[in-house]
Amino acid sequence: MVKQAVIASPPARYSCERSNKAERQGNMEQPVSPHQAGFHMPAEWEPHEATWMGWPHNVSDWPGKLAAVRWAFGEIVRKLAGGERVRILVNDRTHEDRARSLLSRAGANLSRIDWFQIPTDRSWTRDCGPIFVTRRHPAAEVAIARFTFTAWSRYPNWQQDNQVPVKVARRLRCRIFPVTHNGHKVTLEGGSLDVNGAGTGLTTEECLLDPEIQVRNPGFSRETCEQVLRDSLGITHLVWLHKGIAGDDTHGHVDDVCRFVNPTTVVLCQEPNSRDDNHRVLAENRDRLAQATLENGASIEVVPLPMPAPIYCCGQRLPASYANFYIGNAAVLVPTFNDPNDRLALGILSDLFPDRPVIGIHAVDLLWGLGTVHCLTQQQPALPVA
Predict the structure, then answer these.
(1) Are 149 and 161 in contact (CB under 8 A)?
(2) Gap between the Cα atoms of 119 and 15, Å rounded
(3) Less crowded by CB within 10 Å, the N or C end of the chain?
């Protein structure tokens, strides 16, 4: 186990520090949920204070490709730092120094990067990192909804990743809400959920309700999941899709399938080839969305998003998807795969995000780790204007 380095002080003052201390103290005897305290999870396109990432170090995630993956990380950081701070988790000072050197050579603006010596097992910050919630009243505040992370109920090494939200909250000096149900901790990964910031969320039954494979919360019903997400993230209306895409080791994360691009519109991956494993699954998700509504009862506008041709490595299908994009303050970063549909996907997303450039990130090397751009990033929303 890597020993955590001691850090003397935060590199800057964070918006989380400006929380209502009196209210926090007053609530200590009678815990309330984030929703009860006025918090909700904002949409990804709303203003960020920062993006969180974990510098890659786990060789088993990218066997033979770790060096190339680090350069892909460098390009993501370079693009994001133009519009917000990038907060990078590193295991220790040596890890940090090596990352600084590569980012400098990659042309990233180092003055826009904050370093946090918080050891991790892996680099999939979307799933193990803090899930932030915000509120405007009675006092503007950013807090963390603290879910448990167990490596997608699949891998044995997750104990350090599971501590990331707690350590981030300590460094940012922000409130943290442990998410429990009937006295038990609730397990949830950020990639299993997408929100429009107005009360509607997207998820899949395969990920949150499957009773036999990669079970996160044994015994949870649909109603229990909906109650937990309402209380913790302010999701008052949950849209259930069926399954995720082929090759996904998370067992159904929605961020490879369907994403909100504004409060009323989603992009949904479609596969026209009837012989492809994704064809029937994505068609069923399309049928479900046709019957689904938003939090106010309105229909959801659905924009089809193509899939790249299947990508294999060592005989294993990899979860390639254009839906795994990340919406930063100054750019939308979209994974690309040296595929003819790259240009089509970038064009569709460019039309849907007229307020910021849509930029392709070469993701074939990243994909060997079974995830790409969205899986590697986690947004920290800006402090709301009261």
Answers:
(1) yes
(2) 23
(3) N
Cα–Cα distance, 269 to 257 (Å, whole number): 5
Contact 192, 256 (CB under 8 A): no
Q: For residue 170, what are its two tokens?
A: 């300590």
CB atoms under 10 Å from CB of 164, counted, come to 23
The answer to whether the CB of 34 falls within 8 A of the CB of 230 is no
Are 169 and 175 a contacting pair, CB within 8 Å?
yes
Q: How confident is the model at residue 17 (pLDDT cuts 50, 70, 90)?
A: low
Residue 355, φ and ψ in degrees, nearest 5:
-90, -5
Residue 31 has pLDDT above 70, yes or no: no
Residues facing residue 195 across a β-bridge:
201
Q: Rounded to an integer, what distance in angstroms lies between the CA atom of residue 24 and that of residue 103? A: 39
Residue 352 has a pLDDT of 98
The CATH code of domain 32-381 reads 3.75.10.10
Annotated catalytic residue 258: no
pTM, rounded to two decimals: 0.93
**Which is the catalytic residue, given 128, 174, 258, 375?**
375
The predicted structure's pLDDT at residue 13 = 56
What is the number of residues in the chain? 386
- Does residue 283 sit in helix, strand or coil? helix
